[in-house]
Amino acid sequence: MKRERVSRIVALLAFAVSISAAASALCVTGIPLCQSFWSYVAVFDGIVLSIDQKAANDPATPFKEVPERFRPPFRIVTFEVARSWRGERGPRISLTVTGGPDAWVEDSVEYARGGRHLVFAYRVPADGNVLSTSACAPGTRLGATDASEARAFLESIS
After folding, report:
1. pTM for the complete prediction?
2. Buried b (16+ CB within 10 A) or exposed e, 61-88
């Protein structure tokens, strides 16, 4: 019994470290925005219409490859698209993002209903139909000073 418990703890720690390492690896700095733009499947400006919190064991989870006991809770964030530069055109686009109440995930983005965001999204590898994003992506809450570079680039390619 004790050996099984230790094995579970070691597995959980290994999983946590791998998620943290993967999230940190995504946040590579110094890549020009014009280059990173092409690595995302959808780039759009949108207003958050709704945020639907889902439990870790929800059947809609995009984390099916992760053992059920290690799956994070997630949210489905739906945007009304104001403008799209790449990929999905809208009028509405939904993203699946990790985290939620009582669950902090290193690369999760915090959204609030009514907030306007510049979103750089990718497809979740396990389910190519699901779009997601991370705090490492160039998109930010519009109006913030750190969104100005991304906005200027996008305006230049329009």
Report:
1. 0.72
2. bbbeeeeeeebbbbbbbbbebeebbbbb
- CATH fold for domain 29-157: OB fold (Dihydrolipoamide Acetyltransferase, E2P) (2.40.50)
Compute the radius of gyration of the chain from its Cα atoms: 17
The residues spanned by each domain of the chain are 29-157
Helices in 40-120 by DSSP H: which ranges? none
Using an 8 Å Cβ cutoff, are 47 and 80 in contact? yes
Of 57, 106, 100, nearest to 76 by C-alpha is 100
pLDDT digits (tens, 9 = 90+) for 108-138: 677 889 988 889 999 887 667 889 887 777 7
